What we know:
The protein is an alpha/beta fold. Helix content is about 40%, strand content about 20%. The protein contains 21 helices and 19 strands. The strands form four sheets. It has a five-stranded parallel sheet, sandwiched between helices. Helix 1 (about 20-30) crosses helix 2. The longest helix is centred in the middle third of the chain and has 34 residues, at about 315-350. The radius of gyration is 25 Å and the shape is globular.
Amino acid sequence: MKPDKRWTIKKVPVIKTGTEDQIIDHLHEALHIHPAICRLLALRGIQDYESARLFFRPELPHLHDPFLMKGMQKAVNRITEAMEWHERIMVYGDYDVDGTTAVALVYSFLKSNYKGELAYYIPHRYREGYGISRQGIDFAHSNGYTLIITLDCGIKSVEHITHAQSLGIDVIVCDHHLPDDHIPPAFAILNPKQKDCKYPFKELSGCGIGFKLAQALAIHWKRPMDIVYQYLDLVATSIAADIVPIDGENRILAYYGVKRINESPCPAISTLKELGGVTKALSISDLVFVIGPRVNAAGRMDDARKAVEFFIETDPEKITILASALHSDNDDRKEVDKSTTEEALSIIQGDIGLQTRKSTVLYRPHWHKGVVGIVASRLIDHYYRPTIMLTSANGKATGSARSVSGFNIYEAIHECRDLLENYGGHFYAAGMTMAENRVEDFIIKFENIVSSTITADQQIPEIEIDAEIPLTLVKPAIFNLLKQFEPFGPGNMKPVFVTRRLYDYQGASSIVKEQHLRIVAYQENGAIVEGIGFGIGDKYQLVRNGPFDMVYSIEENEYHGNTKIQVKVIDIRQSQAAN
């Protein structure tokens, strides 16, 4: 049986005065909904009727004024001037989903309002690497582009933006990554994470910042906001794929983006939905697991320019051809992903020293750069610890890092900066490049930093639980309320519940396909639920022997036209003796 995971009941943040119980009681009195649902709201920082109303009914007019962002007026003035003088403008972005959707949004928006020379540029993952490249700047210069707008990159590109400046090219940086102390000499920088930026929401995606730029331009030009809102499907796709928090302004953008995807999506997303075999309405989860991987596959396996081309194309035949190409790239990615994961696991399993470390850092020059980040995540499923996968590209060791709950892997990599040529990222994911002869020193130093800073709790997988409820609550009325919490994602995860002292109902629970658990559970209050637990067939004896505690989410299952409420089982453990 797999080792137990930590079960943690979340604590309600007390923003105003009052205890957790008082906050829940106040919400119950104001909203007249079950206290368990009130607890879910309180966990999301919602403590009164008005904030609950805005949560359940997000409104586009509540998006922040884009001109609150430092540098926005300067950026808008420069773009407007470039258009008036018929300058050549290049839109430059990263090769992942966030970058390509951002480029597609800003390029399409400008294209519909500008008749001058406009181009987009996506660096090749293997030939140029992440961020602004020297090759990209030189291409702009040799082709007469005098203004570059970067999206989802640029905040760390001091050297290359200095080079652009020396060639007479102005650069407007739109980025959401953490700035260093030394920022590039760009004409304007749009990044809410700048220390002196007063923009109220700090967690926009790169595409989200591109959306705010388009919003500001529309205001400046006195154009209707609908010309910007038509791109909300791209923004929602970026929010889902880049795993940014879906709270605050991102909740409004994701809510209306998903709504647009399901009511009037761009032809590109509609075609990918069909190829992915999704017949129901798309959710954020579908954007993460169906749309995102196919868009990302272009940059991972080939050239991400075709992802942008796909999003901006209007001819249905060409869209179908491009969608098929992305789908094929994704199939290739799956094969490489599988073989690389198997090889990486084999390396660890064959080395007792690697098995006992607090971190995993593996380097093989032949690994495909496009899948090392995905494989790092898969290794964490087997060895729960901060993980870095490195390969070779252009004579350098380069790779991706993924972390575990609560451990800031970006800070750990930052501590190794003397061994690195380039690095960047977030709390849970990062990338880096170093000389190949520095890899062994990096492995040792990174392991020492992780060993000295990671806590015991951070080395055990954690399941965060929203509320303890009786089984009698697992019914359609509660599920319909939970639906109104969508879209789910970081900052607003799908609610997870625990119910204690359950029993197998008349021996009906069973193991399905050798590893999954089909469960029929009942509580002494008479309530019965059915559900499925994927990959936890090893918990079957706990169910049979009872009583057991169960952690789960509530779902709707549709089969042959019949719909019923069931649970998706996350974990099971033996109940402790009742007091």
